[in-house]
Amino acid sequence: MHKAYGSLRAVDGVDFDVQAGSLTALIGPNGAGKTTTFDLIAGAQTCDRGDIVFDGHSLRGLPSFKVFHHGLARTFQVPRPFAQMTVLENLLIAPINQLGEHFQANWWAFSRVREQERALHERARSVLELCALADKAALLAGQLSGGQQKLLELARVLMVDPKMILLDEPAAGVNPTLLDTLMDRVQLLNARGITFLLIEHNMDLVMRVCSHVIVMAQGRLLAQGTPEQIQEDPRVLDAYLGGVPV
Ligand SMILES: Nc1ncnc2c1ncn2[C@@H]1O[C@H](COP(=O)(O)OP(=O)(O)O)[C@@H](O)[C@H]1O
Ligand SMILES: [Mg+2]
Q1: How are the residues of the chain apportioned to helix, strand and coil, as percentages rounded to the nearest 5?
Q2: What sign does the CA torsion over 124, 126, 128, 131 have?
Q3: Cα separation, 93 vs 37, whole angstroms
Q4: What residues contact 97, with CB distance under 8 A and at least 6 apart?
Q5: Distance 28 CA to ligand 2 centre (A)
Q6: Quick one: which of 53, 135, 206, 226 could link to 25 by a disulfide (CB 3.0–4.6 Å)?
Q7: At what angle do helices 101-111 and 114-130 cross, to 10 degrees?
Q8: Are the C-beta atoms of 222 and 215 separated by less than 8 Å?
Q9: C-beta 78 within 6 A of ligand 1
Q10: Residue minimizing CA distance to atom 24 of ligand 1
Q11: For 2-241, which CATH class?
């Protein structure tokens, strides 16, 4: 796929596969085009050329809520919770938010049914439990630490049973204890069958949890392989680590 911003080729002929059920990393120096790649996959931006095929369906040109309908969800590099709502409320509105404005009226009509509301609450409670946020349910999302907000981002996408989750820099700014919790949950969800593609700078983490690594630099695909292969690839060391061995 290709995406240019004016004369800048942010994503320049990048082509890769993500194995269903895998936990795959997307790495590369700042400005490599990783977030833009996520934007293209998730429908926040449209490719100038190329296609994205997910589960046998072309996602090209689909808006993000339709991509989400196919079971593909994403989190943002900078968490975007509704700061003035509680953690629980952020989860309760997650399905509506992801469905897109178009569907909101229907969803509200739907959610007025008491049974559905109860099911939604139950799901939110179990997702909060899973994401180690159960005791934070009544706090305003804006009161959470950066790390807890990353967990909330994950929790929000889990409200709607995605098949695949794109995680943009889940570890950035997260303290080691919370990071362990976050990665533990990611691995658990992966074991349950959810495919993950994660943008990550923490190489130790990538080496520890990922089965496959894709490397981008300057808008292009530079290399891909197992963590071991990537660690030993001199091109990756040059581009990503500035020649400093890991
Ligand atoms: N909306 C945009 N408009 C113009 N340039 C952008 C936009 N988004 C990203 N870029 C540029 O595209 C390049 C790739 O950015 P990005 O995908 O965010 O890289 P990464 O996530 O790998 O750090 C950068 O040079 C960035 O400045
Ligand atoms: Mg980025």
Answers
A1: 45, 20, 35
A2: negative
A3: 27
A4: 156
A5: 9
A6: 206
A7: 110
A8: yes
A9: no
A10: 31
A11: alpha beta
Q: Where are the domains of the chain?
A: 2-241
- Confirm if 94 and 159 have CB atoms less than 8 A apart: yes
* Token duo for residue 150: 């990353």
| pLDDT one-digit tens code per residue, 6-64 | 999 999 999 999 999 999 999 999 999 999 999 999 999 999 999 999 999 999 999 98
pLDDT greater at residue 199 or residue 81: 199
Ligand 1, atom 16, lies closest to the CA of 33
pLDDT at 237 over 60: yes
Indicate if ligand 1 lies below 6 Å from the C-beta of 119. Answer: no
Q: Which residue has the tokens 């993500």?
A: 18
Q: Is 222 in the pocket of ligand 1 (CB under 6 A)?
A: no
- Residues 143 and 64: their CA atoms lie apart, in Å, by 28
Residue 25 Cα to ligand 2 midpoint, Å, equals 13
